[in-house]
């Protein structure tokens, strides 16, 4: 498909603080699991932990994002019923190497050999669940064009899960960075 915009969408205050709080409480009350992977070029360098998000919270988040996504990309985001959104926790020393979110043969192969599910979607939604002054480093970066983002709590960053949207997370130097990542499919308007 052709995308309306080449640039990531950055929408401050897309998610109400009350919903952010519910999401961070959820993460604090659940044991984080070691990292998963997603179209990673060097997956050994991603060490964040994650917690899965209940469906009703994911649906609430997508509905808050929908108008922003429509305005920027002229498409409608749709939840993928076969997979869960995840909240990632990045502690000191942890980042995420440059990668793209398109599902590749690496994941498909892994799914065949160890049964690990293939997780992906047309569009990636990243929601900040930490205030930027609560952690050092941890910028979300894009390569083409170069961009470094350290957004306020409740900000939505959205971008196509395509090979030309290479991005990653700079290593955290102090504190903890928490993000919600929702992968959605899209419907042309
Ligand atoms: O945590 C983030 O800000 C980005 C995570 C990411 O790129 C991914 O899950 O594919
Ligand atoms: Fe990603």
Automatic annotation (TrEMBL):
- The answer on whether this UniProt entry bears the keyword Iron reads yes
Q: For this UniProt record, give its keywords in alphabetical order, as a comma-separated list.
A: Dioxygenase, Iron, Metal-binding, Oxidoreductase, Vitamin C
**Co-factor(s):** L-ascorbate
PROSITE patterns from the UniProt entry: FE2OG_OXY
Q: Which GO terms describe its molecular function?
A: dioxygenase activity; iron ion binding; L-ascorbic acid binding; oxidoreductase activity, acting on paired donors, with incorporation or reduction of molecular oxygen
Superkingdom of origin = Bacteria
Kindly indicate whether the keyword Oxidoreductase belongs to this entry: yes
Pfam families named among the record's database cross-references: 2OG-FeII_Oxy_3
Domain Fe2OG dioxygenase: from-to ranges: 81-186
- Protein's name according to its UniProt entry: Fe2OG dioxygenase domain-containing protein
Please name the source species.
Answer: Streptomyces laurentii
């Amino acid at each position: 498909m052709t995308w309306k915009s080449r640039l990531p969408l950055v929408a401050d205050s897309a998610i109400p603080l009350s919903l952010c709080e519910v999401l961070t409480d959820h993460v604090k009350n659940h044991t984080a699991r070691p990292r998963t992977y997603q179209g990673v070029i060097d997956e050994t360098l991603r060490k964040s932990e994650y917690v899965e998000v209940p469906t009703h919270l994911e649906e609430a988040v997508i509905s808050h994002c929908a108008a922003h996504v429509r305005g920027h990309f002229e498409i409608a985001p749709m939840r993928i019923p076969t997979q869960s959104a995840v909240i990632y926790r990045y502690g000191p020393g942890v980042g995420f190497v440059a990668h793209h979110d398109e599902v590749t043969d690496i994941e498909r192969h892994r799914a065949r050999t160890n049964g690990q599910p293939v997780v992906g979607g047309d569009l990636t939604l990243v929601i900040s669940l930490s205030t930027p002054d609560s952690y050092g480093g941890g910028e979300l970066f894009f390569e083409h064009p170069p961009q470094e983002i350290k957004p306020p709590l409740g900000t939505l960053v959205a971008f196509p899960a395509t090979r030309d949207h290479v991005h990653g997370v700079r290593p955290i130097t102090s504190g903890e960075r928490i993000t919600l990542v929702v992968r959605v499919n899209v419907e042309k308007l």
